[in-house]
Specification:
Largest sheet: 8 strands, mixed
Number of domains: 1
CATH class: Alpha Beta
Order of helices and strands: EEEHEHEHEHHHEHEHH
Mean pLDDT: 91
Strand order of the largest sheet: 1-2-4-3-5-6-7-8
Oligomer: single chain
CATH superfamily: Alpha/Beta hydrolase fold, catalytic domain
CATH architecture: 3-Layer(aba) Sandwich
Radius of gyration: 17 Å
Number of strands: 8
CATH topology: Rossmann fold
Structural class: alpha/beta
Distance between the termini: 28 Å
Low-confidence stretches: none
Helix content: 25-40%
Length: 254
């Protein structure tokens, strides 16, 4: 699927932009990639304009490497692309950015979809920060993200391993992860007014089901759906179920 995702460039921004219709803005997580959303793009680009910005997690100036800097980046991207009435969807860290973006720009967002989102609690990296140069550790941590560790192949693990070999990239990852943990949104999210869908893995070890229930309790107009035998990235691990739940939600909003 990844080969079919054509990366476009506009100014400082790299992004996917496929399909036509109402905009669906997808935000990936800390170790995420554009290809994480492959199944969503494949299905929904038939009915929507699906846009995925590549977040500058590894390139940001270190002093800006945090939640505010990433949210500003998304605001600049949306402005550059002239987008409005968006369905904003985020996984993990991307969900956290989506929450912040929605609170800052309520006039731009028509609906919000969160899956394994940080913002209330997350067991980051399975309770520890990444260890550079230890391939087995990285493999174990990547496996920890999925109910079935074979969901992703060795290439995915190697890509993360290579990324973490860079000291500067590792520093940014740790800075962003710490920023996300510090930035608890328990009080703020009560102000989110748009229809919100929470799609959660029932076996999520990083943002456990209790976190999903807490989001559901605190976000006024929210719906929670769980997927069994699924961990932290439902759109990758259970793409068909994820897409069906998402389609039901979108149909109910139209």
């Amino acid at each position: 699927m990844a080969e079919q995702l054509e990366v476009k460039q506009k100014g400082a921004f790299s992004y996917i932009d496929q399909g036509q219709g109402r905009v669906m803005l997808l935000l990936h997580g800390l170790f995420g990639a554009l290809s994480n959303w492959g199944a969503v793009v494949e299905k929904f680009s038939k009915t929507h304009r699906v846009i995925i910005p590549l977040l500058p997690i590894y390139e940001m100036p270190l002093r800006q490497a945090g939640m505010e800097g990433l949210t500003r980046f998304v605001e600049q991207f949306v402005e550059e692309m002239g987008l409005s009435d968006m369905i904003v969807m985020g996984n993990s860290l991307g969900g956290h950015i989506g929450l912040m973006y929605t609170l800052n720009n309520p006039d731009k967002v028509g609906a919000l979809v969160l899956t394994g989102s940080s913002g209330l609690f997350e067991n980051s990296m399975g309770g520890s920060y990444p260890k550079r140069g230890d391939y087995n550790y990285i493999k174990e941590r990547v496996g920890y993200t999925f109910y079935d560790p074979n969901t992703v192949g060795e290439e995915y693990v190697k890509e993360i391993f290579e990324t973490l070999k860079s000291i500067s990239k590792s520093m940014r990852i740790v800075a962003i992860a710490k920023s996300a943990q510090r930035h608890n949104m328990a009080r703020e999210i009560a102000d989110i007014k748009v229809p919100t869908l929470l799609i959660w893995g029932l076996n999520d070890t990083i943002t456990p089901p209790a976190v999903a229930h807490e989001f559901n309790k605190r976000i006024p107009n929210s719906t929670l759906r769980f997927i069994d035998k699924c961990c932290h990235a439902p759109m990758m691990e259970r793409p068909q179920e994820f897409n069906e739940i998402l389609e039901d939600f979108l149909t109910s909003q139209s």
